[in-house]
């Protein structure tokens, strides 16, 4: 895959905690440096006010650059804060109801872990994309990983766009790149001194 049009697109995932005094500028630098398809607001907090303020601040960055912004889990905040959609974490379980609530124009994607069945069901229920992960090794949860075999199978059998995310590195990106539509990249870049530079290096592994 050397044609830029055939390369996976980039889907940026915010840190689970962020400083609104500094993060919007760091995000803007990445959006200005590379073509980004979507940003996901992925906060750990349950503080509605904090989430709302973060959504407004990040939307100001993404909307200026015509980049879609989805929020993790919080369906009710999509319309309230003018967001483009939601990223669900429960596979296909709530997808039908969420699609009905948000309508056909909203982006509704869902994380399916390593489950082909959940991914296929989500696709049948009109998910805009399905994400699998983590791709890399992690001690979180039970340590299960989304394998190259899963992405290869999906790319051959299913038309619904697929996102690879979680514990990515250069070698994993190089291996998985021919089989995915998007890479979900977050902590891999935000923990570095220059996220835009780190992102460029990861993109270089795709070609």
TrEMBL record:
Entry keyword set: Thiamine biosynthesis
Biological-process GO terms, alphabetical: thiamine biosynthetic process
A single MF term (Gene Ontology): thiamine-phosphate diphosphorylase activity
Residue span, Thiamine phosphate synthase/TenI domain: 10-176
Pathway involvement of the protein, from the record: Cofactor biosynthesis; thiamine diphosphate biosynthesis
Gene Ontology cellular component terms for the protein in this record: cytoplasm
CDD domains xref list: TMP_TenI
Protein name per UniProt: Thiamine-phosphate pyrophosphorylase
Upper lineage: Bacteria, Pseudomonadati, Pseudomonadota, Alphaproteobacteria, Rhodobacterales
């Amino acid at each position: 895959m050397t044609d830029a049009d055939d390369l996976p697109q980039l889907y940026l995932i915010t840190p689970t905690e962020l400083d609104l005094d500094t993060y919007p500028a760091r995000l803007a630098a990445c959006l200005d440096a590379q073509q980004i398809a979507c940003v996901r607001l992925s906060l750990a907090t349950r503080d509605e006010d904090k989430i709302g303020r973060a959504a407004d601040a990040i939307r100001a960055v993404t909307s200026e650059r015509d980049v879609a912004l989805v929020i993790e889990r919080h369906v009710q905040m999509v319309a309230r804060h003018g967001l483009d959609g939601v990223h669900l974490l429960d596979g296909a379980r709530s997808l039908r109801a969420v699609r009905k609530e948000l309508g056909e124009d909203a982006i509704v994607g869902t994380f399916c872990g390593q489950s082909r069945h959940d991914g296929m069901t989500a696709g049948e229920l009109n998910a805009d994309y399905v994400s699998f992960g983590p791709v890399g090794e992690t001690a979180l949860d039970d340590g299960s990983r989304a394998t190259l075999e899963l992405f290869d199978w999906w790319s051959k059998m299913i038309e619904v766009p697929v996102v690879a995310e979680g514990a990515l590195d250069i070698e994993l990106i190089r291996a998985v790149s021919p089989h995915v539509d998007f890479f979900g990249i977050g902590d891999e870049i935000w923990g570095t001194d220059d996220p835009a530079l780190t992102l460029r290096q990861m993109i270089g592994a795709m070609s």
